[in-house]
Amino acid sequence: MHSHFKLIALAPLLLTTPVLAQDFLTPLQDMVDQFTQGSERPKPPQSTAPTPAEIAPVPRPRPPDLPSAPVVTPPVVAEEEGAPETPAPEPEPIASTERDRVYQVACPAVIQGLVEAEMAPPLSEGICGEHSPLVVTAVLSRGRMVPLSSPVTTNCQMASALPDWVADVDGYAEAMLESRLASVDTGTSYMCRARNGGDEASISEHGFANAVDVTGFTLEDGRKIGVEADWAKATAPEGRLLRLAHDAACGGFMTVLGPEANAEHHDHLHLDLGCHGESCQARICE
Ligand SMILES: [Zn+2]
To answer: Which of 83, 95, 108, 256 gets the highest tally of CB atoms within 10 A of its CB?
Structure first.
């Protein structure tokens, strides 16, 4: 059994270093002979030339009579005398159509018919911009499309927040003024500028297509209700409608600024989805 353990101890060395195996072949054969004594297996014939394949995987020599693999050489194309030299093929460049493609993202609100909008090319002006801006022309309110007085350029988030708010105002208008909305009167949307009444270094959400200004509403009976003209009539239906519109916006947008916020907002409601607070969940409703 002593020789058995020797063999086991040597086996990994032999398996991993076949060159060294030659040095150990003769003593190893002796060990194998001792190891296999007494077993059913017939003893291999004693030989001075050991059979390495039985002990360790020694690379077999290549049979001398086999023809060596034919060397494949690329066909030589005879160049015509005086023909211009063919340059080596270069890696295929990315097709210009692929390189110039603008990767924009789709807006579910458009696909679901909640807003009528066209995708616009990316906007980029210094820090300002939006990669997938929409030009929104109408929003769905209670089963019909209500047009915007002028198209607004916004991001998908703003486009998605508008329909519910317009539907609220539409319902208030019908209840209080007995006429539905004919249009939402819109002002500034995308514009790269500092914040109104804010510090000069601070870019307005308008600069990220993340804000829309609403100047008022036109009813189906032709009446126009404007923030500038009607906000002050606090107890009249027009003034109440504007206040309800302001307050309803505070549920769907993150910033709502009206005439009571500051003098810059005397003639419109500013709506945006800017991030306030560490987790973007704080709202400003003034
Ligand atoms: Zn604004």
So the answer is: 256
